[in-house]
Amino acid sequence: MTKSTDEFIPVYGPVKSWRYGRSLGIDPIGKISTCSFNCVYCQLGEIEQKTSDRSIYVSSAEILLELQKFAPWNVDIITLSGSGEPTLALNLKDILKETKKLTNKPILVLTNGTTLTNPEVILALNLADKVSIKIDAVNQRQLQGINRPTEIFNLPGIWGGIQEFREKYQGQLAIQTMILSPWNSQTKAEYISSIKSLKPDEIQLNTPRRPKPLKHQLYARGNHTEFHPYAVQKLKCVSQDILQEFADYIYTNTNIPVRYKQK
After folding, report:
1. Under a CB-based contact definition with an 8 Å cutoff, are residues 149 and 143 in contact?
2. Is 2 contained in some domain?
3. Is 60 exceeded by the pLDDT of residue 8?
């Protein structure tokens, strides 16, 4: 049965991920998009509630009830993402623990890394099999222009939190970087230096192929199609050659595997 695009259900999909295969989504944030960033390319549209405060937005019980309806979970992975920054969910640890117990599937969390100075978040994320952290900026100008944080985040502080998490995390760590325009040699060098200190398991390069809704859309949590029943803004993408050139540069200088979406 087709659901209304305005109806909030905390479990959605499965969706096809170029990075992780067939993925079932868990949205612990709710109908109102809530995030510590308001990225210029966000596939959800403009973030409605801009905050870095943690709270229980969707109860664990509601999530688990909906999750049971998807049994036997014929997917490659279960992903916490959805309508904003999933680590803002105060019940993150409970969601991860109970989801793993119920489904016995690998669990991934997508995060922008702004909460990784919080020991409770680090403790919760250690229950995830995989964590993918968004890093689009190596300087404050990039951070403000691309990610548009809800408050004045200190970029070295964000990197420091990610570094602290990396030192304790035993799962698979990926760094996801959105490329909106070609980077100059200095920016590339700064990125390489920071990546070397983090030692992620892989790097994922992307460019905004999905158009951005002009207003927040729950429908946009899933796979993009050419048809979308709402107004969008098409964003400029870098070429495949630029992505490949940067991927080769990163691998040559770090020996860390790099993936990017093929055409």
Report:
1. yes
2. no
3. yes
- Contact indicator for 135, 202 with CB cutoff of 8 Å: no
pLDDT tens for each residue of 214-230 = 777 676 676 555 556 67
E strand or H helix at 258: strand 258-260
Please tell me the total count of domains within the chain.
1
Q: What is the 3-state secondary structure (H, E, C) of 65-122?
A: HHHHCCCCCCCCEEEECCCECHHHECCHHHHHHHHHHHHCCCEEEEECCCCCCCHHHH
Residue with tokens 């490659």: 76
Q: Compute CA distances 191 → 28, 157, 177, 254, whole Å.
A: 31, 15, 10, 11
**Does residue 3 belong to any structural domain of this protein?**
no
Give the separation between CA 143 and CA 146, rounded to whole angstroms: 6
Q: Which two tokens stand for residue 182?
A: 């070609």
Q: In the predicted model, what is the mean pLDDT of the chain?
A: 91
For 73, the token pair is 């979970």
Domain that holds residue 234: 11-260
Read off the CATH number of the domain in which 98 is found. Answer: 3.20.20.70
| Predicted local distance difference test score (pLDDT) of residue 2 | 35
**What burial class does residue 88 get, using C-beta atoms within 10 Å of its C-beta: 0-12 exposed, 13-18 middle, 19+ buried?**
buried
The CA distance from 49 to 105, in Å, is 31
Sign of the torsion angle spanned by Cα atoms 88, 90, 96, 102: negative
pTM: 0.91
